[in-house]
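G., the chain you wanted modeled:
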Amino acid sequence: MSQAVTDKDRVFREDLNVGQLGLISIQRKIAPDYTSWKVSFVRGGVKSEIECDGAQKFGVPHGVDNDSYLAMQDLYLEQGCPEDGVIVFTMYRLLQMCGLEDSGANRKMMRQSLERLAATTYWIGGAWRSHQEDDWIVASFRLIEKLVFTRARKDVDGAKMIAVTLPRELTRNIRNGYFKPVSMTLLRTLGQPARAAYRVIDALRHDPVQHQNRTASLQIGLMELAQRCGIASDKPDKIRRTLEPIHEDLLAAQYLKEVTIVGRGKQQEVRYVFGQGAPEPDAALVDLLTGMRVPLAASRKAALDYPLLVRDGVAQAGAILSAGYQPKNHVGFVLDVVRSYGNGKYQWPEGTRAAAQPEVRNIVRAPLPLDVPDVPVTSRSSGELARTLGFLLRTPRLSREALATLPHHVLVDAHQQVVGQPGQRQDALIETLLKQVEERSPSTSER
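Predicted structure as tokens:
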């Protein structure tokens, strides 16, 4: 049985610039005419300016955009840090990673979030830290450089797959390890805007140059903190009222040990004393993954998210590759084997079984793969796979609800077969799935 962790137990990652610069406002709602802003401050001893220009239709990024953009950065790592910055996912997967239910209202909200991020341009003067160049640079980009929704003409449920191109300035930093951890366990205990504020405050703890160094306490001016959080007010009393419930939530979650505000008017200072720390991955596991040509950033993430699966998963991936398998996406294949280790998706080549497998009866094991899709599917839930298969198979005999009753590994195998044979009839597969549905519940296939 796979011992992969759920999203709520994982540690996500995000570029340190995004949080420290306050590119996305923590406020849940903004005024209809709030379509641009400009701030200046000193970061790492460097005088900096930021201009944000949003679209009249959407306003500037805010609220749920914090969650969606964090999820996309983590998907970039999950999909092996592709150099072209393109990630592919479903709306269901995005909602799942953001801790939101799959409803029509949430799908509409998330689509607006993606469109808002794609429509907003930032100009950053001297404040963007390029980890590769070890320097501060001037940059202009959109947080989503390209956004593509794909769906069939007859599909009335909306986009099935979403392709997002992330900006080069961001992806280059992430590939080079310039990111900070975000505790999903903590994030799921907080509501907005506390979730977004936590990420900003936590980012400010980190040294912008030696980004792995972070302080046990932080002192920052109230007005500067408002800027970094994207609080659209220059009135100290209003800013404090906005921050008070946030501080209460962060204290209750034990992320903060103490909050003190001293001074008067715009000269007030906020002092934080922090509580719990963030976990670090096992260096030996990271070395195993980098030895398989997995980028350091993706290796650290996988080692932290799947510590019990890395050793055997890497060994199995190595055995399959040694047997002659040549995946289209080497990094994506290795990470997929690690994440799905023990669930029956991959077999050890004959004579190379290097680790004991749990005994599983009445399960048809997947054969040694002939091809692996560039986007791993094993991390998707049974519900999402059922939705995708229902769309791909296009038969009224198999409803999404019926497919969702099947074991996860069966759905994964079916998905692999369908996408591996595009345009071909899947009558045999449909009959097999129908039989399995009927065996589990005789009435299911009739619904």
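The chain has two domains: 7-274, 283-446.

Shout if anything looks off.
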